[in-house]
Structures are given as C-alpha cells and as structure tokens.
Amino acid sequence: MPSIPIKPDRLLGDLQHLRSFGARETGVVRPAYSKADIAARQWLAGRMAEAGLEPVFDPVGNLFGLPAADTPCMLSGSHSDSQPEGGWLDGAYGVIAALEVSRASAEAGGPPVAVVSFQDEEGRFGALTGSRVWSGALPLDEADRLTDLEGRTFAEARAAMAGLCAADFVRPDRFTGFIETHIEQGPVLDEAGESIGVVDVIVGIRSLQIRFTGHQNHAGTTPMAARRDAFQGLVAFADAINRAFAEIVTPATVWTIGHVALQPNASSIVPGQADFTVQWRDGDKDRLDRMEEIVRGTAERVCAERTLHLDLSNHVAVPPTGMDDGLRARLESAAAETAPDNWRVMPSGALHDAANVARLMPAAMLFVPSIGGISHNFSEDTDTDDLIRGAEVLALAIAV
Amino acid sequence: MPSIPIKPDRLLGDLQHLRSFGARETGVVRPAYSKADIAARQWLAGRMAEAGLEPVFDPVGNLFGLPAADTPCMLSGSHSDSQPEGGWLDGAYGVIAALEVSRASAEAGGPPVAVVSFQDEEGRFGALTGSRVWSGALPLDEADRLTDLEGRTFAEARAAMAGLCAADFVRPDRFTGFIETHIEQGPVLDEAGESIGVVDVIVGIRSLQIRFTGHQNHAGTTPMAARRDAFQGLVAFADAINRAFAEIVTPATVWTIGHVALQPNASSIVPGQADFTVQWRDGDKDRLDRMEEIVRGTAERVCAERTLHLDLSNHVAVPPTGMDDGLRARLESAAAETAPDNWRVMPSGALHDAANVARLMPAAMLFVPSIGGISHNFSEDTDTDDLIRGAEVLALAIAV
C-alpha cells in the first residue's frame, strides 16, 4: 500500500491563506461570484498549477484541478464560497484537504488525485448550484433564471467571471469516484470527543408550509368555548407530532418548526391565522414518508377538531442519498487506522455537494468535528489535530 | 314610578348622525383629538344644549352635559372616539342612549340626568385616558407626557381643542352614580338570542411578556437531544397552562397567547429565542392570582426542564371592578321588566370607562348584543330593537 505523507504546515498555511479572501479580517464573507470569491478561486487555481494540476473553470465557475494523465482518477473537494457570516472551514477545509492530498500523492508517487471547488454551495442562487448544474440535476438555462436577494440573475453573476471560464463542462467520466471532506457543522463528534465521522447517508429533507385559519377575536370578550384560535391549533399540532414521531424515529431523525407568523400578532387579540413551516430530515425514505403522513394527518385532525381551515403549500422533498459502499469501506478502514476507537459512522444532517455528485459517480463523505457544533458563524472552528487527521484519513483512503 | 318614554326615532337619528363624523362613509374613523372627533364633540355639545343641558368640555376634552339644577343627579354616557377601523356603536351608543334618556326624562318631568362623552377611551394615548384623568387614576401631568404612534404628546393633542375647554374638571360630587350603556363586543348575548346584559364585574386583566432563550442551531445537524429549542419550550408551556387552568377557571375566564416572535424565525434554524405574551382575564382577584402562580411556575418548570433561560417583563395587573349593588339591582329590575326571560347577568371581558368612574361614585353597566360578536370593525352592528331596548332599560333604571 503506497503511503501519502501529507504536510500539515502546508495544509494549515493554505487554509489560513484562503481565509484572507474575506471582507472581514476576523471571519470569512465570500458569497458566490463576489470579488472575494473570484479572487479566492484565482489564488486556488494558482496553487493547483503549482501542484502540477491543470486548473479549469467550468461554465458556472466550478474550479477543477486536473492531473496531466487523462486516465480516470479520484476526485476530491468541496466548495470555497461562504455564508454571509460564515466561518473559515465550511467548504474551504474540504478543498484544501483535497489539494494537499493531491500534491502529497504526486510527491510520493501515489495515484493522481483531481481537486474541485464547487461554486455557490451556500445558495446565493438556490443551494449547491454549481454541483447541481454539473450533475445534471439543474439544467443550465433554468439555473440562469435564478436570482439572488438583490435581483441579479445567475446568468449575470457568472458573466462576472466569464473570462476565466471554459466553454464546456468537465467530463464526469474522467473520475472514478468523489470523496468530500467537510466539518460536521453539528455537535455529535465534538460532544463524543471523536475525530472522524464516515457518512453513511446524506439525509433527505421534507418540509411543508402550513396555514391554520381560525377567527380573529377580542381577547377579553370572546369566551374560550367560542374561539377558533389559530395559535392554540399550532400548539396542539406541535405537541401531537412530537408524540407521534417519538414512536417511529431514530436518534438521528430531526424535525423543526423554525418559522411562525401569527395574524394579527397582538397580545389582546385572539390569533385568527398561524403560518408555520414544519421540516423533517432522515436518511430513510420510508421513515420520511411515514412522518409526512403524521404531519398531514395531524394537521387535518387538529383543524377538524378546532374548526380551523387548513392550507398546505411549498412541499419540499429532497431524497436521502446513500454513500457508495466501496468508498465508504475505504474511509472506514482509513479512519480505524488513523483514529482507532475515535471515529463513527454517521448520517449527514446537512446537504452537501456529494449528494449531487453521487448522480454521476460513486461518492462518499468524511467529517471532522465542529467545536461546540458551531458553523455559519465567524467563531466556527476545529482542533488543528482533527484538521490534520481528516486529511490523513482522506490520503489513506485514496492511497488504497 | 315616573315613566320616561324615550323616542326611538330621535335615538336612532342621532346615532346615525354621529356616524357621519368619520373619515369613511361606510364606517367610523374618529381617533381622540382628530378633526372628526372634535367636530363630533361640538355637534354633541349642540345636541346637549338643545336638550336643556349645559355642555362643558373639561381640560382633557371629556364632554359633560349638565342639568341646570345643581342638586346631585345620575350621570350616564360612554365615549365618542373610535378605533382606527372601529364601527358606529362602540362608545357612541352609550353616549346617545344617555342623551336620549336625559331629554326624554326632562320632557316627562322625570329626574335630571347628566350626560358624558369621555375622551380617548380607545387609547390613542394609553387607554381610557379621559376617564382615567378625571377619576384621579392618572395625574394630568403624567398623562401629558403620553405619546401617540406619531410621537405627538397628549399635551399637544389636547391643546388642539383648548379653546373649547374649561379650566377646571367637573366636580364628581355633582353626581349620585354612573351608568354606562355599551355594546357587548362579544358573542354571548347574540348567540343566546338575548337582548340585555347587566354587568356584575368588569374583569381584571393580567399579562406578562415572556422570553425563553435557548440555543440557535442548524435544523439538520443538531440532534433532537442536543437542542435547546425556544419554540418547543413555548409549545410545552402553552399546553401545560391550558391543562392547569382547566382545573380552576369558570366559563367566563379567558386567556390568550396572541403575540409570538421567534428568533431568527427561519424554517431551517432551530429557534434560539421565543418572545410571547400571556394575558388572562377574570372577575375574581383570587383566581387571577392563582392563574399568575400557574403562569410563573409553569414558565420556570419548562425552562428548567429544557435548559432555557427565562425572562419575565411588562407585568400588567388591572384589578377587577365590581359594579355597584344598588345600581345593578335597578338595572336587573328594569331588564326583567323590559326584556323578561331575555337578559342575563354577565361580566364585562373588556375594560370600560365605568371601571374608572367607579373610583368616584357608584357605577354600573348595561350591554346590548353585538351581532356575531363583531366589534372594532366597520361591520359592527346591533339589531335596532335591541338598541331601543337598551335605552329603555336605562330609562327605567334611572326613573326608579
């Protein structure tokens, strides 16, 4: 088995350097197609070239670093754009880990490794836009009509870096598989004191926007028995789904009511309308289906019992994506060797580019801990030892 | 027993005329101290003079119509300002019913009856401002510092009608008691098909603003067991107080969570903060106390169980005001004679000027039905027969 000895100082130095392409010195503000994002990509392209890779920007700005030999090879990477108040590791870590493993492998006479930084993972135009377009999940002409919060279209945004970009997309058959390294963005590894998570599934997401319409009334003169209080309907609904979900979920299942808007939302008026969103995530499509039956059935029952009118809208269903068994086995062996008794198999509760790339080729994912579970925040961080260990696991899995 | 035969056409004609002092022909928009409000008061003052009453505006714009004789007499009335989208009867009915009974009594050789239209009952500057100042519950210099939504002070607002106003307040010892006639603004009489409600108590109001602070998290990567979800805390709280209140309330007790604000209020983020208001009303101070113990105790228990931080603020406590036994007995007799088997004794769930006037003299209240329980709305209405019946009950109670 060839060994690929990564150089921790080079990994950490590049990560720190990438951090400097941000609008605030203390964090990273690098939305897709911003000047900082394009500058970061150009610097990355230069580092790829220095590592012996051919940098190629595809038509939407995904940046590939391709080995000279055109025999199919592994691809690794993530994204280098960030949230408006995002931290320094979300995405960037997976890109730099891939770059380090690629150049370390080249130095050690190991297998060629291609590197990628996808564009607009954080969703200035939707979410995971670069990998969605490359994977064929989103046609380019549809993507071009997406708009950001300022009303700029995706077509206009990507025109800002058109001079850098190739006319054609990189052919997926150049690659034998894809491994994405990423921070967990949750508390599981950190709380367990573990260094590595090997992802078995990127969970599916369902959500429904729900409106309960009752009757707006004076909070002093309307007896309880005469009320059709939309907020009390929401309380009954939330309590009932908690009880029903408890019968069918696993510890990895999550559900959230994160958005609530009452009308007229005044302390002396019985709420006549409650709008809220229920979102639930799980790795198993059947469980997502059963949870949806509970959500719909409970909403109907609560509204029937309380004479509320029910409206359901904006149904979202992102299917779960299982990781490739072969790649996952290689990651598990590498984790067991690098961090014995200090790793676990776990689902990814967040979406990642790997879910799109899995449409094209075998794909897998690797997590390192997020201190305190914090992400999308300037204070996002990971122990240096874990950043190094994650790259070592990637190198070992690729070297097999 | 002297009879006071009211004239229905005059009562309804004046009510319709008062309606015309509004910004929209279909309803009434007459906030305190607006041009429409002042014009309505000037017209009312003229009608009082025509009825043989001396119109007197006090320093805050409360309009009294005083009989010539200075022997103490009954006072009746309500308010003539309205909500921004208020209807034609809220307040206005009680003022015109008092005016009609006063002039009918004078015509019939009955007892003198003074009439009042209080200022700013609807709360452009607080609530029930005119009667609060007159009753001494709110010192005038404090009232003068109150501001409306446009930042105008009460002092500035009342200066707009200073030329009309007397330098001194009307002496309360001119009056032997106060009866306020008002629409119910709730559904109880209308649903029961009853014509008259005699108020036994104007309920007390308590409210608390509550903040649950948990931890804002990613809705995909944060396991349920690791969450400190402020909204789920609110659901548990609302459900628990419903159960605990059910053990101690009467059918007239009401409680409301009408205002809810989550932070950051996004469908993919576990809510880190929930601000909400709990308000409860009852005619019995002891029950209000026991409900407050439940609210505070439940909030503390829920926060302890869920590791949420609890903040309580803006405690409001308006005590219940029992109506005067003697006046109430006169209203009950009059109701039994005017609407046999078609009236009830009931609490007022809304605040009224009578609660303030009760500080100065015996006070009582009389309700007529609100069709569909609707008020504070252009569609507010009451059957003509009930409007007449209410004035007849008032006349009979005063004639005793």
H-E order of chain A:
HHEEEHEHHHEHEEEHEEEHEEHEHEH
β-strand number of chain A: 15
Strand content of chain A: 15-25%
The percent range for helix content of chain A is: 25-40%
Roughly how many Å is the radius of gyration of chain A?
Answer: 23 Å
Overall geometry of chain A comes to: elongated
- Largest interface in this structure: A-B, 58 and 59 residues
**Annotation field: number of helices of chain A:** 12
Low-confidence stretches of chain A are none
Q: Please describe the biggest sheet of chain A, giving its number of strands, its sense, and whether it closes into a barrel.
A: 9 strands, mixed
Q: What's the multimeric state? A: homodimer
Q: Give the structural class of chain A.
A: alpha/beta
Distance between the termini of chain A: 6 Å
User: Could you report the average pLDDT of chain A, rounded to the nearest whole number?
Assistant: 95
